[in-house]
UniProtKB/TrEMBL annotation:
InterPro entries: Acyl_CoA_acyltransferase, GNAT_dom
Alphabetical UniProt keywords: Transferase
Recorded superkingdom: Bacteria
Limits of the N-acetyltransferase domain: 11-187
The keyword Nuclease is annotated on this UniProt entry: no
Keyword match Nucleus: no
Family matches, as CDD domains: NAT_SF
Protein name: GNAT family N-acetyltransferase
Record organism: Streptomyces venezuelae
GO terms, molecular function: acyltransferase activity, transferring groups other than amino-acyl groups
């Protein structure tokens, strides 16, 4: 990923808003990040992704579908780079139906394991709020997080509010059911 970083740990951000913005190099970095996150216990799921361990053959088609759906008004990838490497990313989506067009949903928040504990996730979450408000005119964001990994504390620390739970909705393994935590933040 090419970025405008100054060689420090501060991430440089880039948005992808159209399918043709996805280069083969960037696709490879997204697949690598997602594979590493899932295989190190990250709570990033997709309906068409198998349970861990996963490989590039599993993750690549999911990244391709996300890229194919990019649209400046409906679906954007936000990328964080450090020294030219993809350090993390997320997907921001919105539905244009008038009942919910003022709200967006944040999906697939990821920090590559080699960039963890460096503020990348928090920086992504702060930047997505600005993009949602200033570029898309959104008034509220929501997300879903898996219980049992400290994610609710992370999001609460960034100003998000827990608005509900689906108890035991996520089966990580036999006998290991986790709550799906629903969170929201006003912009």
């Amino acid at each position: 990923m090419t970025d405008t970083g100054s060689g420090s740990d501060a991430p440089a951000f880039r948005q992808l808003t159209r399918p043709d913005a996805m280069t083969p190099e960037l696709r490879e970095q997204l697949v690598d990040c997602w594979t590493a996150v899932v295989n190190t216990g990250g709570a990033v799921i997709a309906a068409d992704l198998p349970m861990p361990p996963v490989g590039a053959a599993d993750v690549g088609p999911v990244v391709d579908r996300l890229a194919a759906a990019l649209d400046p008004d409906r679906s954007r990838l936000l990328l964080a780079g450090v020294d030219g490497a993809l350090a993390g990313w997320l997907l921001l989506r919105r539905d244009l139906h008038p009942l919910i067009a003022h709200c967006g949903v944040v999906h697939h928040v990821q920090t590559h394991p080699r960039f963890r504990r460096r503020g990348i996730g928090a920086a992504l979450m702060e930047r997505v709020r600005l993009i949602a408000r200033e570029e898309l005119g959104l008034e509220r964001l929501q997300l879903s997080a898996r219980a049992g990994l400290g994610l609710e504390e992370f999001y609460l620390g960034l100003g998000w509010t827990e608005v509900g739970r689906w108890p035991g909705a996520l089966r990580v393994a036999p006998g290991d059911d986790r709550d799906d935590i629903l969170m929201s933040i006003g912009l």
